[in-house]
Design a protein that fits this description.
The structure is a homodimer of 91-residue chains. By secondary structure, the first copy, chain A, is an all-alpha fold. The first copy, chain A, is built from three helices and no strands. The first copy, chain A, has a single domain, classed as Chorismate mutase (Chorismate Mutase Domain, subunit A), CATH 1.20.59. Chain A starts with a helix and ends in a 7-residue tail after the last helix. Chains A and B meet through helix 1, helix 2 and helix 3 of A and helix 1, helix 2 and helix 3 of B.
Chain lengths: 91, 91
Amino acid sequence: MDLSDWRDKIDEADRKILELLNERARYVLALVPLKKKAGIPIYEPRREEQVFENIARLNGGPLPPDAVRRIFERIIDEMRSIQRGPMEDDK
Amino acid sequence: MDLSDWRDKIDEADRKILELLNERARYVLALVPLKKKAGIPIYEPRREEQVFENIARLNGGPLPPDAVRRIFERIIDEMRSIQRGPMEDDK
């Protein structure tokens, strides 16, 4: 495998990651009306901590735990923004 | 589907995202000796821009383009760190 073969594999992984991020975003948007109905706020620190714990437990590397945590912090931050919608975006 | 069903789906998406991030990290680490041999630096702005362009082109939403860009900036930043290794980490 040469440099460009590995890059093709990286591009393919990125394509799948992007697809899953949008899949996750769809689930997160589906939650909004359910949360509103149940009177649950968009920002739930306990649930977010649970997500980070799941990730930390499942991580087999080579990415170190702090790198994985930072990536998921960014992901969750963006998910929170789309749940709030453009009008309420207070990022 | 109730709140906890959607959360199960979110946890499952996170598990797959984590797996793909580590897969991508393995590819990126495989590149290091090839880059060294070819005299190519770890940080290649042109290649990184190409990755962002791929992502922007493939993004079908609901995540907006700027959200996707920020997530991939974080991913690529962490990938660069592991390529450099703990001794050369200048983050």
